[in-house]
Amino acid sequence: MSEIKTDLKETKKVHSLIVKSLLFEEADKAVEVPEIVKPLLQEFQEVIPDKLPDESPLMHDIQHKIDLILGASLLNLPHYRMRQKKKGDLKRKNRRIVEERDDSRELKSMRCPCFINTKDGRCVCVDNRIINKVINKIIVGYKFPIPRLDDMLDPLCGAAVFSKIELRSGYHQIQIRLKDKWKKTFKTKNGLCLV
Amino acid sequence: MSFELTNAPSTFMKMMNQVLRPFINKFVVVYFDDILVFSRSETNHIEHLRSALKVLLKNKLYMKLKCSLMTSKLFILGFVVELMELELTRRK
Q: Lesser CB count within 10 Å: N end or C end of chain A?
């Protein structure tokens, strides 16, 4: 405290820092569920699972489509080196991967290298750097204006009670159009995989 | 779909708009993966929340446990939303 006091005598900039941290605390506190909503959450417990279900997301009417620029050449990069233990993990991880591998023998593909991310080998990752640098360059980008937030908040006028619902790993809850799935193929030591 | 793909945000926004279309601007505002439900009174709010959650359940969309529910003051995307007024915070 004495240090702060001496600092305060020298400069007043310290004030602004303190105010900001309080604001953060206030924002993080707002997760307590009021009693009235609890029965409602009980009713819709399936929407708030502890763990995301293993099944793939529902096929919505809107699916993600990947259109490639005409005449662009497809990638073909070598797979990464993987430790022996992790190789086992990859095989065990998903039988579906192995099955897909056989199907995709004739499949043309992007052939991006992949690696296993977590310690227990649960998650197979395709290298994001490659996706950002290379794949996105040969995908047709459609123009999409990001909605203006201040415009969107106008209908709130007069409202007194608010709730904020955040979707869990939102983007992973959309399917890619079936005929575009091969464009997300990646390469492992055992062959090509589709997830 | 992974988020780093080109066009991913636009597809996601389209999907969210389509799913929640009947409620948008009546008692729901959608901004990518954030859904803001607003109402004038608490009794209405429960009904509104119920219909929003029903739609999420029907479309198998899952939400985070950490949500602010039924508050009179809400932090959303750098804004503070309160009764009848909107103030911009410095929070990023």
A: N
Structure confidence at residue A105 as a pLDDT band (50, 70, 90): very low
How far is residue B34's CA from residue A36's CA, in Å, rounded to a whole number? 22
Please state the rounded mean pLDDT for residues B38-48: 87
> For residue B15, which of A60, A58, A95, A28 has the smallest C-alpha distance?
A60
pLDDT for A95 equals 45
Q: Is A157 on the interface with B (CB under 8 A)?
A: yes
* Region A98-127 average pLDDT: 48
B14 and A176 within 8 Å at the Cβ level: the answer is no
Q: How many helices (H) and strands (E) does chain A have?
A: 7, 5
Contact yes or no for A48 and B8 at CB 8 A: no
User: Do residue A160 and residue B25 have CB atoms under 8 angstroms apart?
Assistant: no
Question: How sure is the predictor about A119, in pLDDT bands with cuts at 50, 70 and 90?
Answer: very low
Picking from A135, A156, A166, the nearest residue to B67 by CB comes out as A166
Is residue B66 less than 8 Å (CB to CB) from chain A?
yes
CB A42 within 8 A of CB B51: no
- Per-residue model confidence (pLDDT) at position A14: 57
The pairing of beta strand B85-88 with beta strand B79-82: antiparallel
Answer yes or no: do B46 and A37 touch at CB < 8 A: yes
Alpha carbon B66 to its chain centroid, in Å, reads 13
For helices A84-93 and A95-103, angle between their N-to-C axes, nearest 10 degrees = 80
Residues A155, B29 contacting (CB under 8 angstroms) = yes
B77 touches chain A (CB under 8 A): yes
ipTM attached to this prediction: 0.83
Torsion-angle region of A71 (φ positive above 0: left; ψ -120 to 50: alpha; else: beta): left
Is residue A107 over pLDDT 70?
A: no
